Amino acid sequence: MRFMTAEPFRIKMVENLKKTTKAQRQEFLKEAGYNAFKVKAENVYVDCITDSGTSAMSTEQWAAMMKGDESYASCKSFFHLEASVQDIFGMPFVQPTHQGRAADLIMANLYAKKGKYAIGNMHFDTFRGNAEIMGALAADLVIDEGLDTASAAHPFKGNMDTAKVTRLIAEKGVENVSVIIMTITCNNNGGQPVSMQNIRETSEIAKEFNIPFIIDCARYAENAYFIQQREPGYADTPIIEIAREMFSYCETAVMSSKKDGLVNMGGLFVTRNEAIFAAAQQLTIAREGFITYGGMSGRDLEALAVGLYEGIDQDYLEYRINQVKYLGDRLKEKGIPIVEPTGGHGVYVDGRRFFPNIPQHEFPSQRLVVALYEEAGVRCVELGACAFGSKDPVTGKDVMPALEIMRIGISRRVYTNNHLDVIAEALGYIYENRDSYKGMKLVYEAEITSLRHFTAGFEML
Ligand code: F0G
């Protein structure tokens, strides 16, 4: 296979992209309140706002969709999906949901408790939003290296700091910790992986204190690939076996299938706890739909049943992780400060190091999002002062987050390296002119701070 270094697929159907002028894009930005979420997708040239729900599906998935069984109850498509999940996850009880946050909400209802800690490496926004609404205390205890964007030395920067976990349990009392959640890969600090050893050790602490251990596994296949490539002892282990071992340590897994499931919509709540499963089914019926579809159509269940296997394919994962790394390497060549090493689903640019003259409270990463769209029609997302900023519950003052980054999310099987070159060239141009940029001011924010970035409005300073 020496010369077979290209994508392990060819393109059968294309979606045309529209080119726009800089003047048009400046107008679109103004209309959108300088929030990229509000720019119309048709006016985006390369869309990197997320890797979620944006995958290109395969011929096998489209063919499976034609066999979707749309029966309300006990449809054939559910049993196809259930068999795939049971096989890959090695867990018996499978509840589909319409997307990841619905599984999050069920999980939060069953495991998060008002006034009690939910420990995570770094919780994703939607669990954090649910926790905030319920009054649970979401604690991020990732290792310190995970917050140091410049350090490339650690191969698993998504790891939980187990010393911090035991310290928090000792200080707050085990009765005040209701759940431990491991997010793999860790989205919020760069799609950084978690090692098998760390998953195991964290699960052992959870077991010792009788605290349920959950995995948020939206990008579990990418995490498994990093374990195979980087963790001693796994080089010859097939991805499916690595996945089964990861899941063997948790009681329940929640998944946004829109990432490594290679589908456009769907979620999963998977457990080995029968009583929890029964409770999850009741919540599903009340909110999502009957238990065998949980908010998904029969055809979507079929696409996921197939997509889960394609997502753990060795050739696919090699292509996937190396395409993201290609962009990371191109940015590094230009001296652009990125989170290192490059993670699984995107390249994360450090906004503070990119724009050292823009203070964090003037949103340097958001300024970069705006500049990149303005110059090249490329759309990314801010994960910094706006998305991760919080309010001091006593003083109401803004608290700045440790990380200040812009994520370039790379969709699966969608863009070629030529598209990634557009991003690299445009970012290189902005970086050369970085001294000419000023910050931004937040002029509208929604009430739930952890979700404010989706609807925020800005003005340019
Ligand atoms: N967990 C993680 C780790 C996620 O990254 C996401 C979504 C969810 C849960 C929620 O899943 O969107 O299917 O409801 N992340 C997307 C992103 C939105 O852009 O990173 P969902």
UniProtKB/TrEMBL annotation:
GO terms for molecular function: carbon-carbon lyase activity. InterPro entries: ArAA_b-elim_lyase/Thr_aldolase, Beta-eliminating_lyase, PyrdxlP-dep_Trfase, PyrdxlP-dep_Trfase_major, PyrdxlP-dep_Trfase_small. The keyword Lyase applies. The keyword Membrane does not apply. Residues 47-425 form the Aromatic amino acid beta-eliminating lyase/threonine aldolase domain. Keywords: Lyase, Pyridoxal phosphate. It comes from the Bacteria. One of its GO terms (biological process) is aromatic amino acid metabolic process. Its cofactor is pyridoxal 5'-phosphate. SUPFAM superfamilies: PLP-dependent transferases. The modification N6-(pyridoxal phosphate)lysine is found at residue 259. Belongs to the beta-eliminating lyase family. Homotetramer. This is Tryptophanase. It comes from Vibrio marinisediminis.
